[in-house]
Design brief:
419 residues; alpha/beta; Rossmann fold; Argininosuccinate synthetase, chain A, domain 2; 2 domains; 5-stranded parallel β-sheet; 5-stranded antiparallel β-sheet; 14 strands; elongated
Length: 419
């Protein structure tokens, strides 16, 4: 009689057939309880070799413990990579050129990180000869979709293993029991159930679930870690100047910075002034509503500044078209379609609009708000001569009469029709 492995039913012929088909899998690995259990589970159930991949996206955690734990679990091929610059340069900045907001509020901090992780997993699979990839996203959330759409877009034939959709470890207690049975170290402070789940990268930090699931209850101050409460922020405003080139921020207060260094600086400045907090109930792609607490201090400042420089350098028609396509673009990123042709088409449109988006923006940071108070550009479309209320020689106000009558013609005809 065959030995049944953890997480499988003896009647599930499909799953039994799948066992043994995978030779090597690349696992998106954080070193935490969930992914450490997944690592051992892959070894036990699929009896495959596992390659771990841990990405530094600016989450602010020490990553070497992940290496040590992977080594302890017998992993020979361990990838720990600093992807902060690529993350901001090739993913965050292109998204901010679009002023992307999901459901009008969310700056997509989690969503934009997933395609980069998926991309690198597929590359590592090719480098190591792996025939599968695996992630720790649950079967209820958006991340499973984001990861797997990315995998399949970059390698249509890759095998995807999603343990949360396959195993019978359906509680934190079950995970801990599995870890103890297989001698996986669990930090003492991790044995008690965490009050909420956290995801972090250089763009944002999010908290959701458990203590935060009731959308009527205001989250306690202990939930926030990247910003002071607006009430506790300095009573004196801070002023910063952000320089843009072709739609991307390149310098703060005259100091040129790399993309990751610039976003880090904005996070510090925004967080110190209580900027970037969001309490949101959002519509997940899988159909349910969820409540999330987001902190995006640097991104909130950057969005305000980018719209500020666009206001004097971007033509009205181009700006309005961008605003029309933005919700669709944001939805594509939220739903996991970063590598889709429609996102790439919209990106080309957006990037073309940024050719002349350059100059300086002055932003006032004060008790939770980022307010544009100055903007200038060598390519400005703002003409004081035309807009002044004083006497001018460039605009004949009598021209407006014909303009108004032509635009009113259809309205006048419509009124006569209805008489």
């Amino acid at each position: 009689m065959p030995i049944l492995r953890a997480g499988f039913s003896p009647l599930d012929k499909r799953r039994k057939r799948m066992i043994g088909e995978v030779k090597k899998a690349v696992l998106a690995y954080s070193g935490g309880l969930d992914t450490s259990v997944i690592l051992r589970w892959l070894q036990e159930v699929y009896q495959c070799e596992v390659v771990t991949f841990t990405a530094d996206l600016g989450q602010g955690e020490e990553l070497e413990p992940a290496r040590r734990k992977a080594e302890m679990l017998g992993i020979k091929e361990i990838y720990i990579e600093d992807l902060r610059e690529e993350f901001v340069r090739d993913f965050v900045f292109p998204m901010f050129r679009a002023n992307a907001l999901y459901e009008g509020l969310y700056l997509l901090g989690t969503s934009i990180a997933r395609p980069l992780i998926a991309k690198r997993q597929i590359e590592i699979a090719a480098e190591t000869g792996a025939d599968a990839v695996s992630h720790g996203a649950t079967g209820k959330g958006n991340d499973q979709v984001r990861f797997e759409l990315g995998y399949y877009a970059l390698n249509p034939d890759i095998r995807v293993i999603s343990p949360w959709r396959e195993w019978d470890l359906d509680s934190r207690t079950a995970l801990i029991d599995f870890a103890e049975k297989h001698q996986i170290p669990i930090p003492r402070d991790k044995r008690g159930e965490a009050p909420f789940s956290v995801d972090a990268n250089l763009l944002h930090i999010s908290a959701e679930g458990k203590a935060l699931e009731d959308p009527w209850h205001e989250p306690g101050e202990f939930v926030y870690s990247r910003s002071v409460a607006p009430e506790a922020a300095p009573d004196t405003p801070s002023y910063i100047e952000i320089e843009f080139e072709q739609g991307d921020a390149v310098a703060i207060d005259g100091e040129r910075l790399s993309p990751a260094a610039l976003l880090t600086r904005l996070n510090e400045l925004g967080g110190a002034n209580g900027i970037g907090r969001l309490d949101l109930v959002e519509g997940r792609y899988v159909g349910m509503k969820s409540r999330g607490i987001y902190e995006t201090p640097g991104g909130t400042v950057l969005l305000a500044a980018h719209r500020g420089i666009e206001s004097i350098t971007l033509d009205r028609g181009a700006m309005h078209l961008k605003d029309e396509v933005m919700p669709r673009y944001a939805e594509l990123i939220y739903n996991g379609y970063w590598f889709s042709p429609e996102r790439e088409m919209l990106q080309a449109l957006i990037d073309k609009s940024q050719d002349c988006v350059e100059g300086m923006v002055r932003v006032k940071l004060y008790k939770g708000s980022a307010t544009v108070v100055g903007r200038k550009s060598a390519k400005s479309l703002y003409s004081l001569e035309h807009v002044t209320f004083e006497e001018d020689d460039v605009y004949d106000q009598r021209d407006a009469e014909g303009f108004i009558k032509l635009n009113a013609l259809r309205l006048r005809l419509l009124h006569r029709q209805r008489e």
